[in-house]
Amino acid sequence: MYLNDDYIPKGTVTMILINTVVFLIMELLGDTKDSLFMASHGALSVQAIESGKQYYLLTAMFLHFGFVHLLNNMFVLFFTGRYLEQEIGPVPFCIIYVFGGLIGNLFSLWNLYHAEGVVVSAGASGAVFAVIGAMFLLVLLRCGRLAQVRRQGMILMVLLSIYQGYTSINVDNAAHIAGLCGGILLGGIYYFSRIYRR
Predict the structure, then answer these.
(1) Residue 69 designated active-site
(2) Where are the domains of the chain?
(3) Rg (CA), the chain
(4) Distance between CA 50 and CA 72 in Å, rounded?
(5) CA nearest neighbour of 81 among 41, 130, 116, 43
(6) Separation of alpha carbons 117 and 97, rounded Å
(7) Rounded to an integer, what distance in angstroms lies between the CA atom of residue 136 and that of residue 161?
(8) Is 41 one of the catalytic residues?
(9) In this structure, what DSSP letter does residue 144 have?
(10) Which fold has domain 10-197?
(11) In terms of C-beta density within 10 A (0-12 exposed, 13-18 middle, 19 or more buried), how is residue 114 classed?
């Protein structure tokens, strides 16, 4: 992989800081591992949406169930986001992150409607998978600096990420898959709009 060591991924760092600050605030207010506490402070649930809190689709992507959950997502975000952002810039990166995360949460909500009992979902993984999806597409298209990333390695990373989700407990795979597909879609829009402008 090729990465300019002098490049500062402002969008990636900003998203990591927002997630971290929100986590610290939530820890000060209560227990981030408590589903009821999280559900009343922005985590996604069918009950929240039905009560008119549609903005939870956005807030849920900045909440995490405990420090390990946060650490895992931010670790992956840092090591994938900085590559993608160096290629497309901070503004398109943030757009893919946020809208990819929203797509992930919309499908997560659909999945929650079919779950038994009250289920609460939160985390940046849908947005992180959107970053992976956009990066995956641009690698396949051999775009710019990302041409240095091996296709086989990128495909393997995507497959391993999906596999880990399906073999782990309490993982929102609907958000993962939808976020990945959303990232591929948004990455395609970026790529072909850039070609059109040229």
Answers:
(1) no
(2) 10-197
(3) 17
(4) 30
(5) 130
(6) 30
(7) 12
(8) no
(9) G
(10) Rhomboid-like fold (1.20.1540)
(11) exposed
A 10 A CB-CB count for 81 gives 26
pTM of the model: 0.88
Cα 175 from Cα 121, distance rounded (Å): 9
> What CA–CA distance (Å, rounded) separates 123 from 26?
13
At 4, the amino acid letter reads N
Beta bridge partners of 44: 121
Nearest CA among 4, 3, 20 for reference residue 124: 20
Tracing tokens 């590559």 back to the chain, one arrives at: 83
Which one-letter amino acid corresponds to residue 155?
Answer: I
Phi, psi of 12 (to 5 degrees): -65, -45
Position 85, amino acid: E
Burial per residue of 137-159, b for 16 or more beta-carbon CB atoms within 10 angstroms, e otherwise: bbbeeebebbeebeeeebeebbe
Tens digits of residue pLDDT in 103-148: 999 998 888 887 766 788 999 999 999 999 998 888 888 776 676 6
> Which of 125, 161, 168, 193 is an active site residue?
125
Q: Where are the beta strands (DSSP E) in 115-186?
A: none
Q: Tell me the CA end-to-end span of the chain in Å, nearest whole number.
A: 27
41, 64, 69, 176: the active-site residue: 176
61-99 pLDDT, tens digit per residue, is: 999 999 999 998 999 899 889 889 998 999 999 999 999
